[in-house]
Design brief:
Layout lengths: L1 H26 L7 H12 L2 H16 L4 H24 L3 H26 L18 H30 L3 H37 L3 H37 L3 H33 L4 H20 L1 H4 L3 H5 L1 H20 L1 H8 L1
Helix pairs in contact: 1-2, 1-3, 2-5, 3-5, 4-5, 6-10, 7-8, 7-9, 8-9, 8-14, 9-13, 10-13
Length: about 350
């Protein structure tokens, strides 16, 4: 059912994305000098929705049974393939932006193939049989009940980020370039907090099923402690060497400074995001998905949208845009912490058993 949903959802997203990409980029105030290239990249990228969803769903299935190594290996292989294909298509065949986008979707397809092969070779009940891929209506409601809130939350995240990107684009190509220069590295750092969130969800779900509630609570404490240490080291590294790293992507001192402004604000956001990811992941492990999603949509998405249309309108600067990241994530981390105290899932579910 999950793989069938990935195929169906990927087709829908691909069709919609290809059709409306130019319109959306127009709404984002994308400068005319980069608009054609942006449209080319986005349309090609949307063509890779199906393998992207298959990898994410397939790796989620593997992690659910405690296999977190192979999804990591597949991701590493995909990243290395992406780098090689970038060199071949962009440098060798001089395909430019189209080549970069094509390299991305081909590497995603490679990771999807690896996940599919792994599931096909797995013992039951994980074994995937291609002929039996279809929507099982008896399982679909349960999957949707847990997955839909998180999916809708991601949509709202994307919407608020599009509005922020539109505000950034209004400053012109130089600001976009400086903002993007650090973005090349930023994705790696956001993955750390996201990884702890996924890990605690998997671990809690497994121990919740085994009725080992003490281990569930320990996982929350350990993930927060380990995450703070790792994120602290990464943040320190960014603050000290951020300018040097950004200069790898652009030699322009003005663009480097724009990128470093993003570093100073985003580093704080990294730590705050860790608390949100781990605490909300902990609740999802118990099957509590709707309330964390609603809190996040209000605190992060709501604050960001309101900020852009109020504060930013009066203080139009790149710094005022960046300030909304730690603000929204800080409010959200506090709200999720309060929600966790109210829900107290470990005590609630252990009492029921």
């Amino acid at each position: 059912t999950a793989i069938a949903m990935a195929i169906f959802g990927g087709l829908v997203l691909m069709g919609v994305g290809v059709l409306v990409s130019r319109t959306i980029l127009g709404w984002l105030n994308t400068p005319e000098d980069v608009l054609p290239l942006a449209v080319t990249y986005i349309r090609i990228y949307f063509c890779g929705m199906i393998p992207s969803l298959i990898y994410n769903i397939g790796s989620g299935i593997l992690r659910a049974v405690g296999d977190s190594k192979r999804p990591l290996y597949f991701l590493i292989a995909s990243c290395l393939l992406n780098i090689v294909l970038d060199v071949i298509l962009v440098v060798g065949f001089e395909m430019g932006v189209g080549g970069a986008a094509l390299a991305t979707i081909l590497s995603q397809a490679g990771s999807a193939v690896l996940v599919i092969i792994t599931l096909m070779r797995s013992p039951r009940p994980l074994k995937l049989e291609i002929k039996k891929i279809r929507l099982h209506l008896d399982l679909l409601p349960r999957i949707v009940r847990i997955g839909l809130p998180a999916g809708f939350q991601s949509v709202m995240f994307s919407l608020s980020n599009l509005i922020i990107q539109s505000a950034i684009n209004s400053f012109g190509t130089d600001t976009i370039a400086g903002y993007t220069a650090y973005g090349k590295m930023d994705g790696l750092f956001w993955m750390v907090s996201g990884a702890f969130g996924v890990s605690v969800t998997t671990f809690v779900a497994q121990n919740f099923g085994a009725k080992k509630f003490d281990r569930c609570k320990k996982s929350l404490k350990l993930c927060l402690l380990e995450g703070i240490v790792i994120e602290g080291l990464m943040v320190s590294f960014l603050l000290f060497f951020g300018r040097d790293l950004i200069s790898v992507f652009t030699p322009n001192p003005e663009l480097v400074e724009i990128g470093y402004i993003r570093v100073m604000f985003i580093t704080t956001a990294h730590l705050l995001s860790l608390f949100y990811d781990v605490m909300s992941g902990y609740m999802r492990g118990y099957g509590i998905s709707l309330s964390p999603a609603l809190v996040t949509m209000c605190c992060i998405c709501g604050i960001r949208i309101i900020w852009i249309y109020t504060v930013f309108e009066h203080f139009r600067s790149f710094t005022s845009i960046m300030a909304v990241y730690p603000l929204s994530l800080g409010v959200n981390a506090l709200a999720i912490g309060i929600l966790l105290l109210i829900k107290r899932p470990a005590k609630k579910y252990s009492a029921q058993v």
